[in-house]
Amino acid sequence: MKKLDRSLFLTELKTAFPQLRSDLNQEHGLLHLETDVFTRFVQTLIDTGDKDTLVTGAPDRRQLSSEWDREDGQRADPCLSWST
Length: 84
Description:
The chain contains four helices and no strands. It has one domain (about 5-70). By secondary structure, the chain is mainly α.
C-alpha cells in the first residue's frame, strides 16, 4: 500500500466527515492535533451510540482515493465498519 500523506489524509477526512472541517482547520497544520480532532469525534459517536454517522458519514468507498489500493491489486478499506 502506498503511504498516505497528510494532505491526502485531510482531504479524505474532510470529504468523509465535512462537519470536522472547521475544527481541523483550527489546528495550525499539526497532524497530531488534527488526528486528535478525529479521535475525539469518533469517540463521541461511540459514546452516544451513533453508529449511523460512523458507517454512513463516509462517502461511497469508490469516491475515496486510489492511494488506498494495495500492492496485490485489492482495495484496502479506509472506512470504518461496524457490525450491527
